[in-house]
Amino acid sequence: MDAKSKLKKILKKDYSRLVTLPLFWLTIAGLEAGDYVEMTMGKENELVIKPYKKEEEEEQ
What we know:
This protein is an alpha+beta fold. It has helices spanning 23-29, 56-59; strands at residues 11-13, 16-18, 36-41, 47-52.
């Protein structure tokens, strides 16, 4: 992957800001539209995004 393909533009939508996730990562992580990701801030203020799968108990 070259440096340019790692860059994502921040989009503005009302009071939110949006950044798209790479399709290849979503596929590898087994995520689809409607699924969740967990976002945390790392030690150096980097954003860490991890797949999040809700347990069946939580959905009921």
